[in-house]
Amino acid sequence: MIRLLRHEADTAALGRRLAQVCPVRAVIWLRGPLGAGKTTLVRGFLRGLGYQGAVKSPTYTLIEPYECGGRRVFHLDLYRIADPAELDYLGLRDLQDEDAVLLVEWPERGAAALPPADLRLDLEYDGSMRRAIVQPLTTAGDELAKAASGFRAA
Questions:
Q1: Does the pLDDT of residue 154 top 60, yes or no?
Q2: Mean pLDDT throughout 84-99?
Q3: Of 12, 49, 144, 147, which is most buried by a Cβ count within 10 Å?
Q4: From CA 98, how far away is CA 66, in angstroms rounded?
Q5: Residues 26-57 as b or e (16 or more Cβ within 10 Å = b)
Q6: How many other CB atoms are found less than 10 A from the CB of residue 69?
Q7: Which superfamily is assigned to 2-131+141-149 in CATH?
Q8: pLDDT given at position 30
Q9: CA 142, CA 126: separation in Å to the nearest integer?
């Protein structure tokens, strides 16, 4: 399923929509080139759960934890990962045992060290706009994709 995102606010709104139906435990892979809107989507997702603080890309910290709406969310940015074995130092295995949502930017750099995704969301440039390609990979991902299909950009 493909959604056209005309403005940055549309990307954030898609994130909020996904948060509304996201189960307590889910893995969402966010793929796309630099500047395509991955962190903007995460910011919208967290706002959808009621988080009001700053949301920055964890490019240097690699992982940022959030508690919001009675939920745990971990935002990972694997852009700087050179070897998937580095994820062991982040405690990724421990996170997989929690009731938490993992929002993973640059999952292709984590390869097989990552848990399988429920939903893969590719953000691409489309002229001055963005295109979101939503691919469910599990039953939970199907529900998330349905939410994305009901999303209407401004």
A1: no
A2: 76
A3: 144
A4: 13
A5: bbbbbbbeeebbbbbbbbbbbbbbebeeebeb
A6: 13
A7: P-loop containing nucleotide triphosphate hydrolases (3.40.50.300)
A8: 97
A9: 25
The answer to whether the Cα torsion of 123, 61, 24, 40 is positive or negative is: negative
Which helix (DSSP H) or strand (DSSP E) does residue 21 occupy? Answer: helix 8-21
> pTM of this prediction?
0.91
151 pLDDT band, cuts 50/70/90, is low
Sequence ranges of the domains in the chain: 2-131+141-149
Between CA 11 and CA 6 the distance in angstroms is: 8
pLDDT digits (tens, 9 = 90+) for 15-71: 999 999 999 999 999 999 998 999 999 999 999 999 998 888 887 778 899 999 889
